[in-house]
Design a protein that fits this description.
Layout: H1 12-18, E1 29-33, H2 44-67, E2 75-78, H3 79-86, H4 88-91, E3 93-94, E4 108-111, E5 114-118, H5 123-133, H6 139-146, H7 151-160, E6 165-167, H8 171-175, H9 178-184, E7 190-193, E8 221-225, H10 230-240, E9 244-249, H11 257-263, E10 267-271, H12 278-286, E11 290-293, H13 307-313, E12 318-323, H14 338-344, H15 347-350, H16 364-387, E13 391-396, H17 397-406, E14 421-422, E15 432-435, E16 442-445
Parallel strand pairs: 1-2, 1-14, 8-9, 8-11, 9-10, 11-12, 12-13
Antiparallel strand pairs: 3-16, 4-5, 5-6, 7-13, 15-16
C-alpha cells in the first residue's frame, strides 16, 4: 500500500464531516475572503479558514446546547483575523521587544545529496544535534561538515541521539514511505468512545445576560500537557471559550519565554514532576473534564496517561492527543515540529524556488491542527451531552499536511457553499490588541474564533511560566 490519501476538499465542509457534525449547521457560517493573505502554492488560506471556521462552529453548537437554544449562533470567519492568528508569534511584542524566532541552528542545510532540516530551538535539542554530529556550535563549521554527508545519514544519526533532523523529500518520496502509508489509514480527525459513562450534565450554565458573552466551555477543567505549538493553540482556544485551563510542565523543561507568552493567554501555568508528584496529578485528574497531551506517542504512557488508563480513573473524560507523525507507523515515536513535517512531506519542495526549498507563509500545520484539536474536544463535549461516554480525539501534523497537499483547490466559492464576501485587503492591525500583564506590555493577535454572542478576547493575559500552583481555581 502506498501513502496516497483521499483527502477531500480543503474547506469547512470536509472538516465538519471529519468532526461528525450535522452538515446542515455549516449554513450558519459566513466567510470574509481576503485574497492575498497567506499566499502560497498550496491552499493554505483555505486550510486556515476551514480549521478556524469548524472550531468556531463547534463552539457555537455547544453554546446553543448549553443555553437551551434550538438555533446555533451565526459564525463569521474573516481571513484577516485568521491570518493574524496563524502568524501570532510574529506579531507578539513583550514590552516592545520582538520575539525570538528560530535559533541559528534551526534551518535548512545543504548536504552532499540534497538538504536536511534541523530544529534546535530548545537547548537540549541543540545539545543533542551537536553531539550527534560531533560538531561545534559554529554555523560555518556545521555547514562545511553537513555538505559532506548524506541527508538521510544525518537524519538517522541525529534521531538516534534524541535530536531533530529530517531529510528533505519530494511529495512522491514521502508518498512511498511507510509513515505516509500509516497515515493513509487514518482520518483527518480520529474520534471514538472510551467508556459507557452517562450523558454529561453541565453544572455551570452559559451566561444568559446580554452583557456577558456565551462561553460554551465555562466551568470545564482542562489539563494541558502540551508544548509547542499546536497543542497550546488548542488549549488557548478552550481558555478563550471559558474553560479553566491549567498547563502542567516538567520543571526541568521550561518553555521558551516568547512561545509561552504567545500561547499562554487565558491559562494558568504550573510545574509538576510526575515522577515524584503523581498524587498531585491524580488529584487534578479526579475533577478534570478534558486532558490534552502533545507529546510523541508512548512518551507519557509510564505515567498512566494513555486514553484507556485515564478513562479508567476518570470515567467520562475527554482525552485529546496530538502528535507530529501520527499514532502508528515507523515514525510514530519520533519527535517533530511543523518545519520538519513540511520538509519530510514534500511541502518544502512544492513551496521552493530556484532549486532551494521553501516554506509555508505560516506555521499552518501547527495552527491548523491546533484548531482541529480544539474543535474535536468541543464536538466531543456536545456529543457527550446527548449520548454519554468518555471520548478520545486524535490529530497529527503530518495528517494535516496530507490533507493540505492532497486536496483539490477550491476556486471562486467559499467552503460553505455560500457566496463568499470579498473583503478589502489590509494589514494585521485590525486584529491586533495590547494589554498589560505580569510579563510586561503585550501586543498580540486577537482570537479568530468568532460567533454571535461569543467572546472576543481572552479573560486573562499570560503569566510567568510555571508560576501558578498545581490546583484548580
Amino acid at each position: 500500500m502506498d501513502g496516497a490519501i483521499v483527502t477531500g476538499s480543503v474547506d469547512i465542509r470536509h472538516v465538519w464531516s471529519a468532526l461528525g457534525g450535522d452538515p446542515a449547521l455549516v449554513g450558519a457560517v459566513s466567510e470574509a475572503v481576503r485574497p492575498g493573505v497567506l499566499d502560497a502554492r498550496l491552499p493554505v488560506r483555505d486550510l486556515a479558514r476551514a480549521c478556524v471556521g469548524a472550531c468556531a462552529l463547534a463552539a457555537a453548537e455547544l453554546a446553543a446546547r448549553r443555553a437551551g437554544r434550538a438555533e446555533v449562533p451565526g459564525v463569521r470567519v474573516d481571513d484577516g483575523a485568521v491570518a493574524a492568528a496563524f502568524t501570532s508569534e510574529r506579531h507578539l511584542r513583550v514590552g516592545g521587544r520582538e520575539p525570538v524566532a528560530f535559533a541559528p541552528l534551526s534551518r535548512l542545510w545543504r548536504t552532499a545529496d540534497g538538504w536536511v532540516r534541523t530544529h534546535a530551538n530548545y537547548p537540549h535539542h541543540r545539545q543533542r544535534l551537536l553531539a550527534a554530529l560531533g560538531a561545534p556550535g559554529d554555523v560555518g563549521a556545521l555547514e562545511a561538515m553537513l555538505a559532506g554527508r548524506s541527508a538521510t545519514e544525518v537524519e538517522e544519526s541525529v534521531y538516534a541521539a534524541g535530536g531533530l533532523a529530517v531529510a528533505l523529500r519530494t511529495p512522491e518520496q514521502w508518498a512511498a514511505s511507510g509513515q505516509a502509508a500509516a497515515l493513509a489509514r487514518r482520518p483527518l480527525v480520529e474520534r471514538g468512545r472510551l467508556d459507557a459513562s452517562p450523558a454529561r450534565v453541565f453544572t455551570s450554565p452559559v451566561p444568559r445576560s446580554s452583557s456577558s458573552p456565551l462561553l460554551p466551555a465555562a466551568g470545564l477543567r482542562v489539563l494541558d500537557l502540551t508544548r509547542v505549538l499546536a497543542g497550546p493553540v488548542a488549549t488557548r482556544t478552550l481558555a478563550l471559550l471559558g474553560a479553566d485551563v491549567l498547563r502542567v510542565d516538567p520543571p526541568g523543561l521550561p518553555e521558551l519565554p516568547d512561545q509561552h507568552a504567545d500561547t499562554g493567554f487565558g491559562k494558568r501555568s504550573a510545574a509538576l514532576d510526575l515522577t515524584h508528584h503523581q498524587e498531585e496529578f491524580e488529584e487534578l485528574l479526579r475533577t478534570a473534564d478534558v486532558v490534552v497531551t502533545g507529546y510523541r506517542p508512548g512518551a507519557l504512557d509510564r505515567f498512566g496517561l494513555t486514553p484507556a488508563a485515564l478513562a479508567a480513573r476518570r470515567p467520562g473524560l475527554v482525552v485529546a492527543r496530538l502528535s507530529a507523525w501520527g499514532a502508528d507507523g515507523p515514525w510514530a515515536g519520533r519527535r517533530g515540529f511543523d518545519s520538519l513535517v513540511q520538509a519530510a512531506t514534500g511541502i518544502a519542495v512544492i513551496e521552493g524556488a530556484a532549486g532551494r526549498p521553501g516554506a509555508l507563509p505560516a506555521q499552518a500545520l501547527d495552527h491548523g491542527t491546533g484548531y482541529l484539536l480544539a474543535a474535536g474536544v468541543l464536538r466531543a463535549l456536545t456529543e457527550q451531552s446527548y449520548e454519554g461516554g468518555g471520548r478520545y480525539v486524535r490529530v497529527a501534523l503530518a495528517r494535516t499536511a496530507a490533507w493540505l497537499t492532497g486536496g483539490p483547490r477550491p476556486d471562486g466559492e467559499d467552503g460553505t457553499g455560500n457566496t463568499a464576501r470579498q473583503a478589502a485587503g489590509s494589514g494585521p492591525e485590525p486584529w491586533l490588541a495590547e494589554r498589560d500583564s505580569r510579563l510586561g506590555r503585550l501586543r498580540y493577535a486577537l482570537p479568530p474564533v468568532s460567533f454571535t454572542g461569543g467572546p472576543t478576547d481572552w479573560a486573562r493575559p499570560p503569566g510567568p511560566w510555571g508560576a501558578d500552583t498545581a490546583r484548580w481555581t
